[in-house]
From TrEMBL:
Upper taxonomic lineage: Bacteria, Pseudomonadati, Bacteroidota, Flavobacteriia, Flavobacteriales
Protein name stated in the entry: Helix-turn-helix domain-containing protein
Keywords: DNA-binding, Transcription, Transcription regulation
InterPro entries named in the record: Homeodomain-like_sf, HTH_AraC, Tscrpt_reg_AraC-type_HTH
One Pfam assignment: HTH_18
The UniProt record lists the keyword DNA-binding: yes
Highest taxon above the source species: Bacteria
A GO molecular-function annotation: DNA-binding transcription factor activity
Limits of the HTH araC/xylS-type domain: 198-299
């Protein structure tokens, strides 16, 4: 798999114009302009750059990590360094919108270098992109135009600071708009929780817990065709609990049923639920229920 260390080498590979700055490129189709089109297809590649793009694709399938997505207009997409990208000639690249690419070293020594890692949407799959309202689109476009002005100007000692300030503002607005998107998609959130519990149920009923242990959140998210971060963020917004908490609640609920079988020891119950170490199961049970598994049994006079 090809990995591009510099921004220039990445843009050269795509067949796009060389950047005005060695670690930053801005393409904007404002007015009657058009975005340059990248190469028609690519095998899996990675690079060391962040990418923020809007309306880059009209239709066709592009692989982003392990997810295939049919693109539509109006999606704001965030890509972090190290993400795997792949597409073929079925993808039609939109000529309107914008694309900002910057090397991770561009942020070195700035507060944004630390803050950007907290924005979960850089870890989302492309099918979890941010869909902007017309008003939100205008707000983002204004920020991008400010970045482009500094990018195209003769750069001085203030240029980088101003650009990073604008990038910081753009990401804060994106975070706000994602909050709105989460609120507007409560049905989707409920559906995700149902699917999450359904996959846990299938995993439990298949007997794989004893054989393979407790599934990781990444495994469950993969089966649901969503990213781990998006699944956790969505459930957290809707239920106040993370995916790990929901997983623990499911396991404890199953444990309660099995503990009512007096012929099984606490260790056997733990192993049946996929816990490698029974003491960890006992600690988790007590943390969630306030009493130990043994005390739970005593409560029902089953010892």
């Amino acid at each position: 798999m090809n990995h591009f260390i510099t921004l220039s080498s990445y843009l050269d590979y795509l067949g796009l114009p060389r950047p005005e700055h060695p670690m930053l490129s801005v393409f904007n189709s404002k007015g009657d302009g058009y975005l340059p089109c990248p190469r028609e297809s690519s095998p899996p590649i990675t690079n060391d750059c962040y990418s923020i793009s809007f309306k880059k694709y009209v239709h066709g399938k592009l692989n982003y990590g392990r997810t295939k997505y049919d693109f539509t207009n109006g999606a704001l997409i965030f890509i972090a360094p190290g993400q795997v990208l792949q597409w073929d000639d079925s993808v039609v690249f939109e000529r309107k919108g914008f694309s900002i690419n910057f090397h991770e070293d561009f942020l070195k020594g700035t507060e944004l270098a630390h803050q950007i890692k907290k924005y979960g949407f850089f870890s989302y799959s492309v099918n979890e992109a941010l869909h902007l309202s017309p008003k939100e689109e205008k707000q983002i476009e204004t920020i991008v135009e400010n970045i482009e002005i500094e990018y195209q100007n003769n750069q001085d000692e203030f240029s980088k600071e101003i650009i990073i300030s604008q990038l910081d503002t753009l990401l804060k607005y994106a975070n706000r708009f994602y909050e709105r998107q989460f609120l507007n998609r409560k049905e989707l959130s409920n559906d995700l929780l149902e699917k999450f519990n359904m996959h846990l149920s299938k995993f439990f009923e298949s007997g794989q817990l004893q054989e393979k242990g407790i599934p990781s959140i990444e495994q469950i998210a993969g089966r649901m065709s969503v990213s781990q971060r998006y699944l956790s963020d969505t459930l957290k917004k809707e239920t106040g609990k993370t995916t790990t908490e929901h997983l623990h609640l499911y396991l404890i609920d199953e444990a309660k049923h099995i503990l009512l079988q007096p012929n099984k020891s606490i260790s056997e119950v733990a192993y049946e639920l996929g816990f490698e170490y029974p003491p960890y199961f006992s600690r988790l049970f007590k943390k969630k229920e306030g009493i130990s598994p043994t005390e739970y049994r005593e409560k029902f006079n089953l010892n």
